[in-house]
Amino acid sequence: MQHPLDRLAAGLAASPLVRHLEGFFRDHPDLHMKDMTLEEAGPGRRVKLAGRWVVNFGSDSFLGLDRDPRVLAAVRDGLDHWGSHNGSSRAFSSVESNVRAEEKIAAWLGAESALIYPSVTLANLGALPALLTRQDAVVTDQYAHNSVQQGVKLAKASGVKTGQFAHNDPADLDRALKSLRPYRSALVAVDGVYSMTGTLAALVELRDVAAANDAVLYVDDAHGTGVLGSRGRGTVLDALGNYDNTVVVGSLSKAVSCFGGFVACPERVRFLLKLRSAPLIFGGPVPPPYLDAVCAAVDILDSADGDELRAALGRNMTRFCGGARGRGLPVIGGVGAIASVLVGDEAATLRAGRAVFDRGFYVQSVIFPAVPHHGGLLRVQVNANHQPTEIDALVGVLADVLDQHHPLPRVA
Ligand SMILES: Cc1ncc(COP(=O)(O)O)c(C=O)c1O
Fold first, then answer.
1. Residues within 6 Å of ligand 1 by CB
2. How many CB atoms lie within 10 A of CB 136?
3. How many Å lie between the centroid of ligand 1 and the Cα of residue 385?
4. For residue 199, what is the DSSP state?
5. pTM reported for the whole predicted model
6. Residue 196 falls within a domain, yes or no?
7. Which domain holds residue 323?
8. How confident is the model at residue 368 (pLDDT cuts 50, 70, 90)?
9. Cα 317 to ligand 1 centre (Å)
10. What GO MF annotations does this protein's record show (predicted)?
11. Are residues 113 and 232 in the same domain?
């Protein structure tokens, strides 16, 4: 008789997603670049990855704060002061740094309050089910981040009505909300910046439809935090002018270069989230040294220094997009820190990503399920501390590689 754990593994191996991915790894053993080891980091964005020194265009640390002496000093001082962890759920107690970091984030964003989770994934898994009951409904953009979709699945398991609408399509949002009526309350969950393409949510149009249907807008702004909007406050305030009827989720692990995620919302909602959010009650918090580092990073982001870093990032992104488009590459996004070069075919995407790596640059080769089938792309994360020469060289390599491996219908 088969051992139960072997039977379990065999059952999982037969699932469509695992078969698809294992098939890819088998058919293209030299191409896929997953699960690699980062062996050395620095200076700048140079890294030794899987045995090769490359310039890293796959870092979410968009402003280079992971190397800022003020952020590093805060982590060190935090370690000396608090130790490596306080080892208690926030349901019992929060270190003072946690309270201070939340106050700082709220003040920076101009929101009433903020609540920190150990990651954006846990914020979405914690907040979405906690904000809804079986009398309520939630609809998501079809391309909203996986962690938003997983949060919605948890809500659905407790009886919340769920639906989806076509990407960034206000008319389809209206249809989706109406199809779920009657509901007591509803959420419309979207990303502020779509992480695979770098494109923005149509926040004004979606907010208007949400408001017309008595629904609250829920924006996962992980990639907007620190980068977009005045003083890096993200996409929401700039687009909508206020946080009325909006819950915002932000990241502390990307441009902020620390660790965690947060929900910015009215104080009353924050209180309810603390009572109802399972990951906060039954899980541990962000380690205190990283909360001290969040305070230091937010001080930088909310200052002229932060403006300079965002300007440097903007210059680098303009250089990349201008150069790539000048070489006829089909580039999308490019508003914040993410621009993607469309390839389409999945094997061609992996081949191109590998060839770019072999020539000294790391960009992420993105294929299904992160993007739709045949929607493969090379995702370029531009950072403020990339050198202009590195950006120009990447553009040259991308153009050569795509000419060689996957001649594209070039944009005139
Ligand atoms: C839109 C969005 N939400 C959530 C996450 C997950 O964030 P975390 O790593 O903090 O869980 C990401 C990660 O890239 C993201 O792009």
1. 119-121, 145, 147, 191, 195, 220, 222-223, 251, 253, 261
2. 20
3. 22
4. P
5. 0.96
6. yes
7. 28-57+304-405
8. confident
9. 21
10. ligase activity; pyridoxal phosphate binding; transferase activity
11. yes
